[in-house]
Amino acid sequence: MYGRKACQLVKEFVSSDSGQLIVFNNDLFAQVIEECDGHLLQLQALLRKMQVEGSDNQTTKNADHFGALVHHLSLVRNKRCLMAYVHNRAEVIQNLGWTIERVLPEEIEEKLNSSEKEYFKNHSATLQSYMSDLDLDLAVDMVPPKDPYIKVRVLEEIGNVVLSDQLANLARHAILFLRRTDAEQYISQGLMEELTG
Amino acid sequence: MSGQSDPRGFTFSAAELEFLAEDETMEIVPNLSMERLSLISGDFGPFRPQIATQVPIWLAVALKKRGKCTIRPPDWMSVEKLTQVLEAERDSASSFEALPFHYVEISRLLFDHARDDIPDVYMVRSLIEDIKDVRFHKIGTGLEKLSSRTYAMKLNLSAMEVNVIRPFVTGGLETFYKLGNPDMIQESERQEYRRPQAADRGPRRELRR
Amino acid sequence: MESGSGEGTGGFSAMDDYETLISTTDADLLKRSWRNEKAAPEILQFESSLVQRSREQIQLMEETVEEFMKNGEDPLTVSLYQMDIDRTLFLLRSYLRTRLQKIEKFMFHIQKTADLWTRLSRQEQKFAKRSIEDMKQHLEQSVLTKLPDRYKSHLKQSVISEEDDMVMEPKLDAFVICRTRKFLGSLPVDDSGEENPLDMYAGDIYALRYKSIKPLIETGQLDLV
């Protein structure tokens, strides 16, 4: 049946989790392109035949006319499916540009075809260029900010340290407010604990 | 594919609603002295011990977390007021009692960070839960009444409620709109009755001239 | 701007509250623009001077905070100023980001619609141009060059198409949810011209078709929520 493979291709995209890509289906894609070529050959053959018979495409509504129409419409439908497949994947790739700078991790890269890899590179460069024109990084702050300070209790004596915003005496048992980014290293080393509530 | 339910965030996330709610103002009673803050979002303070002042919730919560103030819960967060609201919500099948646009987020922020400042906090909390339930039930029934005649729907709801029902209302209304769209009806009629209509049209056009 | 004759209707406290909450600091304006941009199906006019003012304020505040730290200002005060900066920066970034995402989605439509194109900032126009090149090249390499001659356009299905029938457009018919800023009087809300117009009061929340209220958003009488 005409258009079935193209439809499969689109369904394959739709069934993948939103925001995730599966491997570019080169095989099925090529088969749809092949189908398009087939439609073109038949379409041209029918149009030639009508020309030879001297029938006017505008007025003659015979089997050949409708046959040609079916091939044209099937071709258009296949084109729309191919474009939808590539375009929807490209939208996912655009989104990657917001979170990943320059280099794609291997597990994503291996799912892309070569044009998609190039597209990722080009489009993230476009995005980076906008940000440097503006002198503002838009790839941070994806969620609303919370209080950057957290309440911690010092578990082991650390002593006087210079933090990003203050000089602090991190004496054992002290309870104080630190920037989350400053506290994280101590918390991961078990020298500090976060107090909640 | 509707712009409203786009996964890339064309509407608001729960965190964004909370962010918006954090700009609502609240009365606090500081226990410290601090000069006036001239912030981008406005001027607040000066802060003097025991002298109440109005600040945005994010500021109130930051001070509260550091033990620098008590928060005065808004009037509507009292057992008395909420009981009234709940009764009124139950009595009326369709209308909604006026609560602040961000009542869900505001109450959650205060439960999380200032529970010791809320009198009868358990009662208040369960009343708000009940009000939320009753309202959601009513919203559900209200949505059932959506019809193809609905070009506009009045929804006096809170921010969170709006966000939850957005896909239903916008999606539902859109579907009705499409189904009822005169262009589409004409389109299908034109296709079905192409010949007779075309025949009809000719003479009529002639007559007008 | 909003005050005046509409006041003193009395007995409607929610409405009065809402009126008094309306202020016009840049922080409020930025928040409003962010909300509208996020909720509107199409790209809105770039708030050029507002963005510039906000950036200047952020920079000024960052300098103030540095000054505070140098002078050994109380760390609590410093952190409150920092939180205020963080909140404004988030709004600004998210506002600009939302616009870029719309440009990414509707690039071809924006490019060929003069009214939309002029809504973009200079940098956004540059971004849009480059995005279009990137996408066009990708579509050509992946699909279009492999198709028969008369089917190679990225805008049209085939050479027969009179209109650009391959271009994704925002749905202006989409329903949006909005809140009125002040009493708006009667508003016709549908195409037929026969339905009852709505009486919209301050603080009312409605689900309406974007198309029918577009001018009211542009003039700031309605907020998308």
UniProtKB/TrEMBL annotation, chain A:
Name of protein: Uncharacterized protein
Organism: Arctium lappa (Greater burdock)
Automatic annotation (TrEMBL), chain B:
Superkingdom per UniProt: Eukaryota
Protein name, UniProt field: Uncharacterized protein
Species of provenance: Arctium lappa (Greater burdock)
From TrEMBL, chain C:
Lineage: Eukaryota, Viridiplantae, Streptophyta, Embryophyta, Tracheophyta
Domain of life of the organism encoding this protein: Eukaryota
Protein name: Uncharacterized protein
